[in-house]
Amino acid sequence: MMENGVVPDAGIFNVLMSGLCKRGRLSTAKLLLAQMLDQNIPPDAFVYATLVDGLIRNGDLDEAKKLFGLTIDQGLDPGVVGYNAMIKGFCKFGMMKDALSCFKKMREVHHHHPDEFTFQQ
Predict the structure, then answer these.
(1) Nearest CA among 35, 40, 98, 38 for reference residue 68
(2) Nearest alpha-carbon partner for 63 in 34, 26, 110, 94
(3) Which residue of 12, 14, 25, 70 could cross-link 8, Cys pair, CB 3.0 to 4.6 Å?
(4) Running along the chain, 121 residues long, what does each successive block of 10 average in pLDDT?
């Protein structure tokens, strides 16, 4: 892509990362995140949410929590998508108190309303 003069943006990277995460290729998805940062392309909340979801799907809740925290530390609003990913992760690992706490933060701190995916967790 870049050989042809096309510079990918966060949206393009997100699509690529999503496909990689769905195929369990998290190490390659993380390399894309590093490439974004090296090229001064700021990841948005959707990029982080995609990686958080991929980490959770592949059983790495600890890394997902770190990345979710990084999203907030960078001043980004994780959005309903990011919160849904974390709620799903906490539920998957039987951490219901953490899931409820995350749900409350979603509503009280970032003032997001749950959507149909929130309740499918």
Answers:
(1) 98
(2) 26
(3) 12
(4) 74 94 94 93 92 94 95 91 94 96 92 80 63
Are residues 74 and 82 in contact, defined by beta-carbon separation less than 8 angstroms? no
Direct distance between the N- and C-terminal alpha carbons of the chain, in angstroms, rounded to an integer = 37
What pLDDT score does 8 carry?
85
Domain 2-120: state its class: mainly alpha
Six-digit token string for 100: 């409820």
The Cα-based distances of 93 to 4, 8, 62, 88, 116 in angstroms read 44, 35, 11, 9, 21
Q: For residues 18 and 76, what is the distance between their CA atoms, to the nearest angstrom?
A: 19
Q: What is the pLDDT at residue 104? A: 94
Whether residue 41 contacts residue 9, with contact meaning beta carbons closer than 8 Å, is answered with: yes
Amino acid letter, 57: R
